[in-house]
Specification:
17 helices, 8 strands, about 425 residues
């Protein structure tokens, strides 16, 4: 279920021939496949959407470490955890953080938590790791405490992606005449015959080769995989062991095992012919796929979905709003008497009331537009108390800068114009 993708090489032979002789192992980052359909027959042909590995994403220069006491304690905790992992032979690259990516993912996890907890899974507690910060710890610092079915069950939350793994895969060199061949260390790395680390080349940066991982592509493949894993393992119920070393950290893996064990075989078979799943067990599969799609889906909601029709459920004509905002920005270069005040009044009327609708970026853009018409005291309060620019903007808009730009909404231009207003207030 994997393929080696080499964007800048003719084929794998040419790439491996170019690897310098000093290296005995090449490590590739993995991109996890995100199936957009419930039923997939040939994932190599049908699946083209992948979760980009966070090590291939550039960290925002505006992202600053949390200088509060809680943030410092967390950094100290992570540093101790890293040192322990490095002492045990972990690859330093596998322990690297991307604060921008992590900040965005906290919001996704918080949004998905109630659904994940509604499954009422009875998973074993993860192995103790006193210094490793948990996802729940991040979530508590990101938002208010939850109530209802998710309350008190953060420890069993599923991962925020349907990701089989995130530490890449490796290929090793077999040297002629060598006294000992490299041996696999698990399924992700190799070591020498004497159990010493190999000299490794890490593929990183734009255009680098990657491993495409087609895990759980489609309902049938998912059911087949966990049906196989539920038999012949010598355990009480026949499924894979839930007590072996390391398994307790594989939360989604354990959840799938439990959900498939609950399912009625007749219902599972019936779902194969349906366009839309009706089984509660399918909630797990869909939840994880939706989590992988979370950023993309927000991008669609932000622009395409709300502009497919002339109006968003009769509440706002978003194409007209977008055009009016562009006109407003162009008018800032004109003298006051030359500006079209009707469009400005239309936008102010819309922004002054409660805005209900699906056009996420449109609503954000209106908020930044209205900033221009506040008095200095209001503007100061707006900056101090609301999400406005930089890291806080990323938390409010969990999309990449490219997604925002490609949407056509002039959010960045509105921010730039607002920054000039801030400077004027300061003078």
């Amino acid at each position: 279920d994997e393929a080696l993708f080499l964007p800048e090489c003719h084929d794998a032979r040419h790439f491996f021939a170019s690897v310098q002789d000093e290296y005995d192992q090449v490590v590739f980052n993995n991109l996890e496949a995100v199936p957009e359909s419930l039923h997939v027959k040939d994932w190599f042909r049908e699946v083209s959407l992948f979760k980009v590995h966070q090590h291939l994403l550039q960290e925002s220069e505006s992202e600053k470490p949390d200088i509060a006491p809680h943030g410092q304690r967390r950094r100290d905790k992570v540093a101790r955890w890293r040192q322990r992992k490095l002492a045990l032979g972990a690859d330093p690259e596998d322990l690297r953080d991307n604060r921008t990516f992590d900040t965005l993912m906290i919001g996704v996890r918080v949004a998905r938590r109630p659904t994940a907890c509604s499954f009422q899974l009875n998973l074993p507690q993860p192995d103790e790791d006193s210094d490793k910060p948990s996802e729940s710890e991040d979530e508590r610092s990101a938002g208010p405490s939850s109530s209802g079915p998710s309350a008190g069950r953060r420890s069993v939350d599923l991962p925020c992606f349907f990701t089989a793994y995130g530490n890449g895969k490796a290929a090793c060199r077999l040297r002629r005449g060598s006294n000992g061949m490299p041996l696999p260390v698990g399924v992700h790395r190799f070591a020498s015959d004497a159990n010493a680390p190999l000299r490794s080349l890490r593929c990183s940066g734009p255009g680098s080769p990657v491993v495409l991982h087609y895990a759980n592509c489609g309902y049938e493949a998912w059911v087949k995989k966990y049906t196989i894993l539920a038999k012949g393992h010598g355990t009480e119920d026949g499924g894979f062991s839930v007590t072996r070393k390391g398994i307790k950290s594989m939360r989604a893996h354990l959840a799938h095992r439990e959900l498939l064990a609950r399912a009625d075989p007749a219902q599972l078979e019936a779902t194969k012919d349906s366009r839309k799943p009706t089984l509660p067990v399918m909630g797990c599969w869909l939840l994880n796929v939706q989590q992988s799609l979370a950023m993309l889906e927000l991008g669609r909601v932000a622009d395409l979905a709300c502009e497919a029709g002339a109006a968003d459920r009769g509440r706002a004509n978003w194409p007209a709003v977008k055009q009016a905002l562009h006109n407003f920005l162009r008018s800032l270069r004109l003298r006051p008497e030359e500006r079209n005040m009707k469009e400005v009044e239309f936008l102010l009327d819309l922004a002054s009331g409660p805005i209900a609708g699906d056009c996420y970026i449109g609503i954000i853009a209106l908020g930044f537009f209205s900033y221009h018409f506040m008095d200095p005291a209001e503007r100061h309060d707006f900056i101090r108390t609301t999400v406005f620019g930089g890291v806080t903007f990323q938390k409010a808009v969990p999309l990449s800068y490219w997604d925002v730009y490609a949407s056509g909404w002039p959010v960045f231009a509105l921010l730039a114009a607002a920054s000039e207003t801030v400077q004027s207030d300061a003078w």
